[in-house]
Amino acid sequence: MNDRLALLVLAGGRSKRLGEIKSLVEINNEPMIKKVVKEVSVITSEVIISCREGRGKLEAIFPDARIHRDNFEEEGPLVGLMSSLPSIRREYVAVVPCDSPLIKLEVLELLFEEAKEHSGAIPRWPNGYLEPLTAVYRVEELVDATKSTWREGNMKLTKVIDKLEDVNFVSTENIKSVDGKLESFININTQEDLEKNFR
Fold this sequence. Notes:
8 helices, alpha/beta, GTP binding, two-stranded antiparallel ribbon, 20% strand, Probable molybdenum cofactor guanylyltransferase, seven-stranded mixed sheet, 9 strands, Molybde_CF_guanTrfase, Spore Coat Polysaccharide Biosynthesis Protein SpsA, Chain A
């Protein structure tokens, strides 16, 4: 259990392609978000879930977590950050999406080690693509950067990252040491994704 790290699960995205609340889509008879939280929540006792819909169901599934409803009309991950970050008490936060049911605990452990003494640790693919929603950040800096970006009227997470002073970008090639197939970065967005990965 890591007393410097909180876990924030972003579950606010709408899912028109799946036809229901994405976080509650069932995989092997349990909600997708439950698979995520069950895998990675052992890293910390401070678990926060940011949602737009289904708060009552999430509270029933996760009685020990803090469930925050997104407080803004806008959509996107910045809404979840703005709604939830102010309540986090730990120095660092691991941010994960609700739709990565193959995420590995070891990936977050590695990212936390890489985030120490930095603004955060964000996975980066060889082509330069970032995975900012499966990453670890220093809370105080992420709060400031998120608020600043929000005040500017910009909803892009990349703009938040640009405001962080000292991000450690971690190659996905290094992450293969704990997640050989990089399954932690597989997102479930469609029925075809479900069929491919779980049927």
